[in-house]
Design brief:
CATH superfamily of the largest domain: 2-enoyl-CoA Hydratase, Chain A, domain 1
Structural class: alpha/beta
Low-confidence stretches: 76-94
Strand order of the largest sheet: 1-2-3-4-6-9
Shape: globular
Helix content: 40-55%
Mean pLDDT: 90
CATH topology of the largest domain: 2-enoyl-CoA Hydratase, Chain A, domain 1
């Protein structure tokens, strides 16, 4: 599939989606939104992909929404929620089994049954920051910078960030970032838990891909998908509901091929050969 505003590559079972408007610090447009969604669902449906990395071209990750593009967004072919559900089904996912919370405009990342790692190579602001929050893990370059931006534009906490950000950094840190919209650096982001690791600028992608390759080769893809669903659903469940769901999944897991392989490779002291079944 040809793309205008992203790059999409697959190597060693890792799909890399690169926002590709470097001259605009990868500012988000309706075209980019549609292409990222299509690439995410494509990676979700591809058995050759086990991990997804989202990054930006050039010196920025994503500077937020492209203000010029917003003026004609109604004419740019943005997918509706109905079409998103259709694409999810075409990608082999049953949207009826996905919580409505994870079928919104940007909140579909948690419904992708593969780990999504944000490789934050530079500034991530506004919507760009929100995109990183919907990823499962956030690895940053030491030159990355972060800002919510909204309050300094007369806007509000959009796209669910008021729910998501406090879960990641805690209530008071989230309020600080949202109230002040100040820019923070990678080390402060690491300190408050906004990012999980910080790498030297030239070592970011090597570090991200090393971690992604470990997941792609050493871990059951079936387990990854189910654990991801469990964790995100648990944010909206009681403890009893989470335990009940886990009990049901465990019964299926011990009958799976990946469980048999997990035991066999451990006993035989060899590398695993998981199939995801």
């Amino acid at each position: 599939m040809k793309y205008e505003e992203i790059l999409y590559t697959v190597a060693n079972r890792v799909a890399t989606i690169t926002l590709n408007r470097p001259n605009r610090l990868n500012a988000w447009t309706p075209i980019m939104e549609e292409e990222v969604r299509r690439a995410m669902y494509g990676a979700s449906a591809d058995d050759a992909v086990r991990v997804i990395v989202l990054t930006g071209a050039g010196r920025g990750f994503c500077s937020g929404a492209d203000m010029a593009a917003l003026e004609d967004s109604a004419n740019r072919g943005v997918l509706t929620l109905t079409e998103v559900k259709t694409e999810a089904k075409q990608a082999g996912k049953n949207a009826s089994n996905v919580r409505p919370d994870f079928q919104k405009r940007h909140s579909y990342f948690p419904a992708i049954p593969k780990p999504i790692i944000a490789a934050i190579n530079g500034p991530a602001a506004g919507l760009g920051l929100i995109l990183t929050l919907y990823c499962d893990l956030r690895f940053a370059s030491e030159r990355a910078r972060f800002s919510t931006v909204f309050s300094r534009r007369g806007l509000i906490a959009e796209h669910g960030v008021s729910w998501l950000l406090p879960k990641i950094v805690g209530l008071s840190n989230a309020l600080d970032l949202l109230f002040s919209a100040r820019m923070i650096d990678a080390q402060e982001a690491l300190r408050i838990g906004l990012v999980d690791k910080v790498f030297p600028e030239e070592g970011l992608m090597a570090g991200v891909l090393a971690y992604a390759n470990e997941l792609a080769t050493l871990v059951s893809p079936r387990s990854l998908g189910i654990i991801k669903r469990q964790v995100y659903n648990a944010q909206l469940q009681t403890l009893a509901e989470a335990i009940r769901a886990a009990d049901e999944e465990m019964l299926s897991s011990i009958q799976s091929e990946d469980f048999k392989e997990g035991v066999a490779h451990f006993v035989e002291k060899r590398a695993p050969a998981f199939t995801g079944k």
